[in-house]
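Narrative of activities, Objective 1.

The group set out to show that a structural description can be obtained from nothing but a protein's sequence at a throughput compatible with the screening campaign. Below is one input-output pair from the validation batch, recorded exactly as produced.
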Amino acid sequence: MPSPSNGIEPQTTSPKLIIQNALPTDAEAIAEIGATTFAASFLHSMPAEHMQAYLDEAYTPTAISRDIANKQNQFFVARQRSGASTETGQVVGFIQMKLGTTEPCIPRNVPMCEVHRIYVSVDHHGGGVGQLMMERGLEWARDRLLGPKEVDVDGKERRAGVWLGVWEENVKAQRFYGRWGFEEQLGTHDFVMGDTKQTDLLIVKWL
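Output recorded for this entry:
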């Protein structure tokens, strides 16, 4: 897997946006989008101090820089076009694909990866940013898990999957994932922040 910081590798997918590998210098923007969007989505469901403790752990520039450098992660950012440059445009969303994560219900006999995070800046919701990022993330997953050939040497079709966890009460997100083929529920797990415990549905898209 190429390091997320190796080059730009732009994916021209929209006249106004470009989806590309995250750079180390994107850590601050990713942290800001992640913290702001996560709080807007979930603050109503827990005490404010539990939320802040989680954000201070997971969504600081230092924490995100560490995540970007981890070769088990692949970050893509949605960047607004800024003239002829693709490096200086504003980051308006990100997706984090992650290898090596699992849960008891996740199959271990087929290649799997996780959509660990996908967030869009609040003021860009509804503009198709999430769709472009999911498209790029799934494209990366197919290449990474299946490689150039989609059949085994014995001629049988290979099977791989992409899984994610979504809060059981987040119906809007569930609908979004459903449109991308995340339809089979494999199980659940607890997502704990402080004394707050939420149940996530673990759903999979087979490739």
